[in-house]
Design a protein that fits this description.
The chain is of the alpha+beta class. About 30% of the residues lie in helices and about 25% in strands. The chain is built from twelve helices and 16 strands. It has an eight-stranded mixed sheet, with helices on both faces. Strands 1-3-4-6-5 form a five-stranded mixed beta barrel.
Length: about 425
């Protein structure tokens, strides 16, 4: 006895005979339904005549080999367990290969894409599972402990982003697990990570989905060099697990581009208060051809300059670290030996940011001062600025060891490794307009 779903290859030879394939758990078997071999001819004939692609069926019979040498099943009994009544309604949407061409429809109705796209459609998500599993195993093998931190928070923090808020209790969906994970480092977990969902109230694009999967890892007594090596190892492990053939770019030394050096060419010096004043940053944006206004906050102006003048310097084929960000754009990172510069990198590949890493700020007084500055910026209308998290500052007063933190956008990484054009192609149920 076999159970499975009728595939697209349903062929009727007569009212009493049809050929079709059924699929279950990734396997496909041909069925040759012939009324002459039925035990209950009336029931069998009715089933054959009513059969549609997509139906879930149960067949019992004898295996045999067809004239073309294909292993097939000749059923004596056949039963439709669950009829499929909708696939035929999409007739006008099918292309010449019997697939639905409207990708927007398929993103909204992933089950239809999986039904009509065959093994190739399902394979992407099998590969995704393998990549996530490989990433988790890599971190666990490196001695990291996997934890779960709250998704609903009294105050979202840990990233420069706008949070979703509940209406009744005023809680927020987390924008990052960073602050909670660093509190665990304070508590003695020297290597800790979380792989899970985060939520940011931002627009939709091929690289952005308001709900996405991230992996954040924190390691005491580690350096940014350790996190750069982890980036390469993690992406290689994910690619190998998915069967990506060419991972040579991840075997080579990473490229490096300095934010401080590039913005200095526009007259922006991170350690010069006058240079970092909004009016001066607006002028720098104008010289760079970047749209800006005095109403924008300093972090937004700096972010616009980095996006327009620094990120494009990363060669698409070479994974590249963007380093030496301004502290004003990195309120949770330690200061480096270069004045006004944070210990931080972002890893870009093919023009997409995949990783973000900090040498983590451990000074509670300095962290509180930076939070207060962020709160001042928020009060002037920047909804993405972070607010003061007193519980986190108190946690730092217990002493956090020198720590490096690392975050990976899992959906983006899978998208890039598989050569997909949009994050929607690797997320089961993306948000659509």
């Amino acid at each position: 006895m076999l159970c499975g779903r009728v595939c697209t290859s349903l062929r009727r030879m007569s009212k009493d005979v049809c050929f079709f394939h059924i699929e279950s758990e990734g396997a496909r078997v041909q069925v040759m339904a012939d009324l002459r071999h039925a035990l209950q001819r009336d029931d069998f004939a009715q089933c054959v005549q009513a059969l549609n692609r997509g139906d879930v069926v149960q067949v019992k019979g004898v295996a045999h080999t067809t004239k073309t040498g294909e292993l097939s099943l000749r059923p004596s009994e056949m039963l439709v367990l669950s009829p499929c009544t909708r696939l035929a309604d999409y007739g006008q949407a099918y292309d010449g290969k019997n697939r639905i061409a409207d990708t927007g429809f398929l993103h909204r109705h992933r089950e239809v894409e999986l039904l009509t796209g065959g093994a190739a459609s399902r394979q992407v998500f099998v590969q995704r599972f393998k990549a996530v599993h490989a990433l988790r195993c890599l971190l666990i093998d490196d001695g990291y402990v996997e934890v779960e931190t709250p998704i609903l928070q009294a105050q979202a923090g840990g990233a420069y982003a706008k949070a979703f808020k509940t209406t009744e209790r005023g809680l927020s969906l987390r924008i990052a697990p960073e602050l909670a994970l660093k509190r665990l480092v304070v508590g003695g977990f020297d290597r800790v990570f979380e792989l899970g969902k985060v939520f940011r109230d931002e627009g939709l694009s091929p690289r952005h989905n308001p709900e996405f999967t991230s992996c954040e890892a924190y390691r005491a007594y580690a350096s940014l060099d350790d996190m750069a090596a982890l980036s390469q190892r993690a992406l290689r492990a994910m690619g190998e697990a998915m069967g990506v053939v060419d991972l040579s770019a991840l075997q080579q030394p990473l490229g490096v581009v300095s934010v401080a050096d590039e913005l200095a060419k526009l007259g922006v010096a991170f350690d010069d208060a006058e240079s970092m004043a909004p009016v001066r940053l607006v002028r720098a944006c104008e010289r760079a051809g970047v749209a800006a206004s005095a109403a924008m906050s300093v972090p937004k102006l700096l972010d616009a300059l980095v996006g327009a003048k620094v990120e494009p310097l990363c060669r698409p084929e070479v994974p590249t670290l963007i380093v030496e960000h301004p502290i004003a754009l990195s309120p949770l990172a330690r200061a480096s030996s270069r004045p006004g510069v944070a210990q931080r990198f972002e890893l870009f590949w093919h023009g997409v940011e995949l990783c973000n890493a900090y040498g983590e700020l451990a000074d509670p007084a300095e962290q509180r001062r930076r939070f207060q500055e962020q709160a001042r910026i928020s009060g002037k209308g920047d909804a993405e600025a972070q607010l003061l998290d007193e519980d986190f500052c108190v946690a730092l007063e217990h002493g956090m060891p020198p720590t490096a933190g690392w975050g990976l956008g899992v959906d983006r990484a899978i998208m890039e490794l598989l050569g997909k054009r949009s994050i929607k192609d690797v997320v089961f149920f993306p948000l659509t307009r």
